[in-house]
Fold this protein.
Amino acid sequence: MSTEADIDTDTGTSRTGTTSSASSVNPDSVRAVARKDFRDSIRSWVFWTLSFLFFMLLVGTTGLLSYFGSDIAAQGQTTEALVGMVQSMTSLIIPLIALVLGWKSIAGERQSGSLKILLSLPHSRKDVLLGKLIGRSAVLSISLITGFVLAAVVVAALLGSFDIADYAGLLAVSILYGVAYTSLAVSLSSVTRSTTIAGAAMFGIFMLFYAVWNGLLTAFWMLMNLDYIPQNETTAQIALLFNSLSLNSAYQNVLSLVTSMGGFTDQTEMVLEGMFGSVPFYLQDWFSLIILLAWIVIPIAIALFRFDRVDL
Amino acid sequence: MPALRVDELTKSYGQTLALDTLSFEVHEGEVFGFLGPNGAGKSTTINVVLDFIRPTAGRVEVLGLDAQAHSREIRSRTGVLPEGYQVYDRLTARQHLEFAIESKGSDDEPETLLERVGLTDAIDRKAGGYSKGMAQRLMLAMALVGEPDLLILDEPSTGLDPNGAREMREIVREENARGATVFFSSHSMEQVEAVCDRVGILQDGQMVAVDSVEGLRDSIGGGTSLRVTVDRIDDDALQAVRSLPTVSNVATEDRDPPTITAQVDGSKTAVLAELEDHGVEVRDFSTTEASLEDVFQSYTTGAEVTAR
């Protein structure tokens, strides 16, 4: 969050000359708003339901693996297999939870007028946005941590070889992934005072990463195969780059950075080197981490800039 | 230094002009009634004061600070009871107060503040189940956190029964006695006249009158309304009454017995004497003071004031 904390809109671009003291970020204020938001947004059953969901996801997958996956166990790759399978499910579930937790965060308070309570107190609008982001992220992250930690005991008992580093790695990138979707949700929630429009925006975000992004990529490959788009190194690079910019691809690709799984096989690496001379930077796992972080920082940064300039 | 200075403030929404070069001042240490019918622009003004919305033109200074550039500092020294808010359903009164206390960095006790507004019973109940009046008391308690220099109360009587409204005025007096300036908006003169030192009347985004309560009463010339029951109506007698310099709005009611009404600024006996000089028998008479509500009505509807 430190990047945002340093943002100051005293740029003189505001017609009305907003200065830093009114629109700056005050860590104490952010903390107060985040704590209030955490208390207010979290009904205890939401928290325990989410924790239980993640717990069951891990334990259930582990159960299936230990029952059916004797081959995998024989190769000592059970944690890797678990991480891969769980990731493919959390990749869908985490966005849904984050978007549902975040969609009303600002729009709902604006619509009902409770935002007036927050802003009658000495908080800047930036404090409110950041506090909301932290508060809602905390709900998701803490339930992820709770689910993972509680499941760890069962998973370790069931799996032949339990790799704690892989397990923790999956948890860490899942939290980042959840925060990115929360950032998108809170930011979009701040651009409208209608919760209906905010809800539509949440659906739009989900569709963007689940249908539109892949659809565009498929269309691109098809047009390339039909020779509407020339098939050469540049177009192939564009398509691969576009693919790696997606939040969901980043979540998948970053796994090889933090766990022992994934990454390119030697064969793939040879093909890529043959095509481009070397493996392009945007296909490397450290780049996925940057993309993941960018999806956290950029939406909230735009929202921070914009939210300061509107009539509430 | 005025506690609040509104200078040529204009706010337009597209074609609609919500505030039209509005200017007025609230002196330090006074209770100022900000009066106007719904839609006159009271909340728009308060929203600019709190930097919820930005002016189209003009500026506002609060406690000597620019309302936009120093909004955070202003709000740290101001207690606000907003209008059209919703409390946090899942937080208790205590948690609401704790949040305000933490936000303002003050060392108030939630219990003490809730006791002042009469909400001690509900301190640990979630605010989602509160009545409008209870929510209003909770918000008033939050406004009192940190002994603010300025209290901005937007329609504070909303949802309060007469007893609650009286308690609220009592708190306004206590806060004022402590040294706080109070800015009190209302659509009802009745709510402000008992507690305000000065009153400003807003109509269509413009201030149509700013004066003390007495000054407003006088300015209308409403003075006293005289109602005389007579045995008959005599045109000469009426003419003579109309020609008196202190009398206006002479009218007759053709009833049995006939009645003459008039607005009188000076001596009422002069009117009675004039009637009797013309041979009209005065059977009965009564007088009424023009109420401030009438004054307010006259400013905001354009109707002439006639005391009842």
